[in-house]
Amino acid sequence: MNLSFFDQFTSPCLLGIPLILLSMLFPALLFPSPGNRWITNRLSTLQSWYIDLITKQLMIPLNKNGHKWALILSSLMTLLLSINLLGLLPYTFTPTTQLSMNMSLAFPLWLATLLTGLRNQPSASLGHLLPEGTPTPLIPALILIETTSLLIRPLALGVRLTANLTAGHLLIQLISTATTALLSIMPTISILTSIILLLLTILEVAVAMIQAYVFVLLLSLYLQENI
After folding, report:
1. Residues 160-176 pLDDT 10s
2. Residues 6+ apart with CB under 8 A from 18
3. What is the value of pTM for the model shown?
4. Where would a tag sit more exposed on the chain, N or C end, judged by fewer CB atoms within 10 A?
5. Can you give the three-state secondary structure of 77-118, one letter per residue?
6. Which residues contact 198 (CB under 8 A, 6 or more apart)?
7. Domain locations along the chain
8. Nearest residue to 85 (alpha-carbon basis) of 214, 211, 217
9. Is residue 105 packed enough to be buried (19+ CB in 10 Å), middle (13-18) or exposed (0-12)?
10. Neighbours of 92 (CB within 10 A)
11. Are 99 and 9 in contact (CB under 8 A)?
């Protein structure tokens, strides 16, 4: 029974071929393709408003050099938000519950921000490893600690997103299973658990949006340190 709870996190396969790539590309099909006019319908208007809002929120802390990353960060935010929300639908697969996928997004982008800083301002980037005014005996220990904290940033990004979404999906499945099992035995308790399930689903929608925003926001803050 316990193993069946984790079956939802197994990548679906067709004829032995993993369909995780298809599930990642499917959200892009939901967005309208650009036409000859700037705005064609209400959906494109909503899409333009959303992209404008996200871009403003992410670019405000950055200087002019960081605005080159606007397209990458906005696209990443849209991708993560779409995958997280679609994964809450019944009988769907959520690619962002896979640590391998989240790490494949976090590590290259974190490395790109780090290399950007080392190329443009190497002294300032390396200076973050040693705070000013550090006593001489503590210099080796602080350099080791700061280097470790720098290197675990992509791991923290990937694990945070994976853990939050996985925990939410498991809670929803546990409570929905309890609701179904109690329906014939204790209908009153089943109704109460269904209300809890509804509230938890609303909470998970908020978590899906917040985690997508936090993932991209932290990347923008890492970029801010290196430009």
Report:
1. 999 999 988 889 888 88
2. 11, 12
3. 0.82
4. N
5. HHHHHHHHHHCCCCCCCCHHHCHHHHHHHHHHHHHHHHHHHH
6. none
7. 61-124+137-226
8. 211
9. buried
10. 13
11. no
**Cα→Cα distances 175→33, 139, 181, Å:** 39, 51, 10
Distance of alpha carbon 35 from alpha carbon 14, whole angstroms: 34
Rounded to whole angstroms, the Cα distance separating 100 from 158 reads: 8
| DSSP string for 157-183 | HHHHHHHHHHHHHHHHHHHHHHHHHHT
DSSP state of 34: P
Taking Cα atoms as reference points, which of 48, 5, 2, 1 lies closest to residue 170?
5
SS3 13: strand
**Residue 204 CA to its chain's centroid (Å):** 13
Residue 14, φ and ψ in degrees, nearest 5? -130, 115
CA distance 188 to 184: 10
138: its two tokens: 């503590």
pLDDT tens digits for range 111-169: 999 998 888 888 877 777 777 777 878 788 888 888 898 899 999 999 999 999 998 88
DSSP 113-159: HHHHHHHH-HHHHHHTTS-TT--GGGHHHHHHHHHHHHHTHHHHHHH
Q: In this structure, how many other beta carbons lie within 10 angstroms of the beta carbon of residue 82?
A: 18
Q: What angle do CA 224, 102, 66 make, to 5 degrees?
A: 20
**Tokens coding 212:** 């997508």
